[in-house]
Amino acid sequence: MLRGLVFAALAAVAFPSPAGAQAYPARTVKIVVPAQPGGGLDLVGRTVADQLTRSMGQSFVVENVSGGGGLIAAQQVARAAPDGYTLMVGYVGTHGTNPAVRKVPYDAVRDFTAIAMVGGTPNVLVVQPSLPVTDLKALVAYLHGLPAKGAYASGGMGTLNHLIMEQLKAQAGFESEPVHYRGIGPAITDFLGGRTAMMLPGLAAALPYIRQGKMRPLAITGRARHPLLPEVPTFEEAGLAGFDGVQWYGIVGPAHLPPAITDRLNAEVNRALASPALKARFSGEAIDPMPMTPAQFGGFIRAEIAHWSAVARERHLTMDQ
Q1: How far apart are CA 34 and CA 29, in angstroms?
Q2: pLDDT bucket at 278, cuts 50 / 70 / 90
């Protein structure tokens, strides 16, 4: 009898019952945002936290951890206990471009559990309105043999807008010098001052200037035209395939998160993504919902890292020098 009780106790520890997962969350859950307050990452974190707080009957709070382009936050979450009480807004930087161009202190696949994709915003190729081009084909023809006139602005070495431009240069067969800034804000400021000829910012950042006529849009990333710029073709429509990259955001946790908790969080996030209220809140950042299962999101992350690693190798881009 005693042996049976001991075995039952050990089994309960080794194999937690589904009821334990059903009781989740029993206390406050932290969602780490790898950036300072404000901007798309913070918006996603706070929106998801608000939605989960309402739907799961427990507090989900945001903790902003900036520094290292998301490396500090990602390392912190990778080391956290896999109990569902420490989550993170994983995005194209922490789980796509950073691992492609630098040695990071975590494995973006093995050290995390992919929980739910939230959404993405496309990047848009813009040029100075003074340039004598109105489409991508004309831009490429104009830039051939004119690298001095083709300097482009980026939000920093290894950022998505940098890597997409390098991909464009490789496929279109032209050269232009990158001018790297500490963030997309300073890059836009200098572009507006006429210091660079083109750039590939996120749609939300570029849209006000496009509407003011200060940026001329030529092509947009993604698989379909965006409703906010219906007249701007995708890169594929403009003649170049493979430009599906978007500034994406998702929810991840430490590796080995219990499947029951992962699946419940995924279901709650996907339910929220279907609501008109959330879509309206995201519209200001031009974020389009991209619901996925955990397995689909995990595959998406692996594909992103593979794609941007290939671009980095082809263009000899690395921050480890």
Answers
A1: 16
A2: very high
Q: What's the alpha-carbon Rg for the chain, to the nearest Å?
A: 22
The per-residue pLDDT for 8 is: 43
Eight-class DSSP state of 79: T
CA dist list (Å): 219 to 18, 122, 243: 49, 10, 10
Q: Strand, helix or coil at 156?
A: coil
Please report, as a single letter, which amino acid is at residue 84.
G
pLDDT at 1 over 90: no
pLDDT range class, residue 149, cuts 50, 70, 90: low
Rounded CA separation 276/179 (Å): 40
Sign of CA dihedral 54, 267, 78, 18: positive
What are the Cα distances from residue 191, in Å, to 61, 100, 139, 147? 37, 27, 17, 16
- % of the chain with per-residue pLDDT over 90: 84
For residue 11, pLDDT beyond 80: no
Q: Is 58 helix (H, G, I), strand (E, B) or coil?
A: coil
For 241, residues 6+ apart whose C-beta sits below 8 A from its C-beta are 235
**Exposure b/e, 207-218, CB count within 10 A at least 16 = b:** bebbeeeebbbb
**To the nearest whole percent, how much of the chain has pLDDT over 70?**
92
Length of the chain: 321
d(CA 84, CA 82): 6
Q: Are strands 86-91 and 246-254 parallel, antiparallel or unpaired?
A: antiparallel
- Count the Cβ atoms, other than its own, within 10 Å of residue 1: 5
Q: Please calculate the CA angle 40-24-280 and round it to the nearest 5 degrees.
A: 30
pLDDT in the model for residue 144: 86
Q: Give me the domains of the chain, ranges plus CATH numbers.
A: 2-120+248-314 (3.40.190.150), 124-220 (3.40.190.10)
